[in-house]
Amino acid sequence: MSAMQQEPVTTGMRTRAGSRLPVLNRLSGKLLRLTLLFGLLAEVMIFIPTMADMRMRWLSDRLNTVAAASVVLAASDAKDIPQSVQNDVLLATGTKAIALREMGASRLLAVTDMPSKVDRHIDMTVTDPVTVIRDAFDTIINGGNRIIRVYGPIGDTGKVIELITSDAPLRNAMFKYARGFAFVSAFISIITAGLVFLAISHLLVRPIQRMSANMLAFARNPDDPQRVIQPEDREDELGIAQRELADMQQQLQRTLSEQKHLADLGLAVSKINHDMRNILASAQLMSDHLANASDPAIQRMVPKLVRTIDRAINYSQTVLAYGGTQEPPPQRRRVKLHTLVSDVEEMIDPDAKCGIEFKNLVPENFEIDADPDQFFRVISNLCRNSVQAMAGDTRNETSIIKRLTITSGQIGATSIIGIDDTGPGLPPKARENLFTAFKGSARSGGTGLGLAIVHELVRAHGGTIELRGGEGAGTSFEIRLPDQPVSLAEWRSRRDSIS
Questions:
Q1: Model's pTM, two decimal places?
Q2: For the segment 23-61, what is each residue's pLDDT rounded down to a tens digit?
Q3: Environment class of 285 (CB within 10 Å of its CB; exposed 0-12, middle 13-18, buried 19+)
Q4: How many structural domains comprise the chain?
Q5: CA 14 distance to own-chain centroid
Q6: Is 374 exposed, middle or buried (0-12, 13-18, 19+ CB in 10 A)?
Q7: Which of 17, 113, 377, 470 is the most buried (most CB within 10 A)?
Q8: Domain of 418: which CATH number?
Q9: Nearest partner of 346 among 360, 363, 332, 365, judged by Cα
Q10: Do residues 102 and 159 lie in contact, with contact meaning Cβ atoms separated by under 8 Å?
């Protein structure tokens, strides 16, 4: 998809992200709803055992009242107590019958309108929480029209008082208690939710909203330094996030500035490239005329001149592609490294640079699997950096050895190439930003592009390049270059040709 096709989608996403959200969809609205919900859930969890305890207390109070009345009734024979008195006692206690059990014998103290059956028997000595909660829910759901028998001991006397009554008053009392509890719970939940909301809103929601608004504003204009968030003075996770966001935004602004400089540089190089190709084309025509000269010295120099101009033309043609996207894929072939290094030596001419000694210790038959032009650039960039570093060494030149050494080796299918010099070494800043354009330069006025290009080209070959040794004099680079994978048939063909 092209950039023009993607732009409406991106703009639409930013418009939706930056528009004002409904109150309930905001983070604060969701937080308020969740706080209310969790507060109510907590009240419900408290309500269940509280309601069961209220039921047991109601029954216990009713049983204690009946036990107090039973003392008077038990003092005389029930037959001697007028029925009107029994009815008054039963009415006052809200019961239908009262009995006292002692020494295994049960005695009926008062009775009126004796029910034909009892629906539930409640033993007040059973206080198991599960049973008590289950019976409370049973009373709320199924009660109201049932006859219950409640019995329990009277203190430590060994006597047991029993009463028979309807569960309708108990159920009505439970509903009344539930309504009052619900009102108080709702009030407490609203107050608690409000306080929690205000606290969390101040501590979390507002800072997050501030960060969100800052990110949207920064995305609209990332070049503006005023859009960088100002971290709050806090030591919690949000403070850390704000500081990290500020660092990231500042780093992004620096990166965008560098990218702009690179774009400007690419535009300048593109303009230079057109004229450079014309100049090199003229030089190529002149080299063709020199090839017909009869002077033996000219005849020896012309092939080197032609190769140099051809490489320069090839570099000029790939400038735009390199600046616009990336290096073209390497066209790998078997290359004699000794010859390649010799060409680099002739091009940089180290003998003219303060007596620098160039030692090509690569065996003449040593081969590597690489793109010859790209790897020529790798070796030439590294060697030129070494020559420039040693040539710029202002120490006593009569006693200091200035030597550039190229070595090679083989481990399995991996070629190892070493580039060592006896120069002043790399400064700490260059080591920290090695292979980074505009940061990894070892000399004043350098750009660091050479090492960045070397790193990119070596990686394109599937290889690695590392700086060996610590700080101090001398610089040593090691390149490891693996051969291309070959098919089994091609490997057998090579093996047969060697044997």
A1: 0.43
A2: 566 666 777 778 778 877 887 888 888 888 888 898 888
A3: exposed
A4: 2
A5: 22
A6: buried
A7: 377
A8: 3.30.565.10
A9: 360
A10: yes
